[in-house]
Amino acid sequence: LVKSIKIDLNKILLYAFYYILIISNLILWSIYGVTDYGVEKFINFVLIPLPISLLIIEKFTIRDRDFMIKILLGISIFLFVVTLFNFSTLSLTRSGVLGGGPIVLSRWLCFGAIVVLFHPGIKRFKVIYILLFLFAALFTGSRGPILSFLLVIILYFFFNFRKVFFRTFTLLSFLICILFFTGIFDQLSQYNTVSRVFMNIEEGGLRQSNGRSLLFVSSIQEMIEYPFGVGSGNFVEYTDRSNFFKNKNLYYPHNLFFEIASEFGIISLLFFLIYLFQSIYLSFKLNLQNKLQAGNMMFYTFVFLFLNSMVSGDLNDARLLFVFIPLMLVKEIE
Description:
Layout: H1 9-32, H2 36-47, H3 49-59, H4 62-85, H5 87-90, H6 102-118, H7 126-138, H8 143-159, H9 161-181, H10 184-189, H11 192-197, E1 201-202, E2 205-206, H12 211-225, H13 235-238, H14 242-247, H15 256-264, H16 266-288, H17 293-311, H18 319-327, H19 330-333
Antiparallel strand pairs: 1-2
Helix pairs in contact: 1-16, 3-18, 4-6, 6-7, 6-8, 6-17, 8-9, 8-17, 12-15, 15-16, 16-17, 17-18
């Protein structure tokens, strides 16, 4: 498929990150041991985002990129339809569909909403499509994807204040009035999964949840004690709260940076950060400054996936993020 390779800084950083992560993990496994979860996570990561990313940076054109977006949006639509058929189950208990978890399902649904929002080829019934995706995402009980969607809207609003202020203010005011003054919000909150999405807001204040904070603190402590990592899947095995986290079925830090640092080492994290921020710089320069509509869609979709990986999910759940990093630079790479 690839007859020749053109070298640039972004490609060097991508190859270096994956190379260091793979080699480091194999060495760390020989030292700290191997778990079934770690093997599954590592194999899925190496066999899915790695070859796809390499294919994208070496072969993809703008046409290929747009076709891939259509495929991904089609998956979101398919999962939306499946969600409707499983509505009775999802409204009672937090679960996913087709073997996937609720976090992954919510991400795909909100991903569909983001793509529809910024897709230059979708103009009619855009608001209706977005609301349908978000409505279905509420019943997964996952807060991270919905919060990430709202943060992307805020970021877009920040970059386009003068252009979208009146339109955004009018639309949000209309939606808030519908939710609260028609009683729809109260009716939705009666469902267990929907109420979980809003569980941090109660009686006008914030209800503290210490699950994430404990994971983050334990990740930092593990990074200090094992700066070169402990191997894929071994975070929970070497943390000082191992039994507590296992009883809560918390096997990873729920933050991509902490997961890479604690399991694959600070050096792997450093290369990933350099690769990530250099890609963000190129995307911002390519897409936002040139005001390319399709480019805007790629950039804001990437931001959505990135924000998700900061508050929920593991390396497997971030596979689409790793694919999107080179995908949003197709024009630059081409």
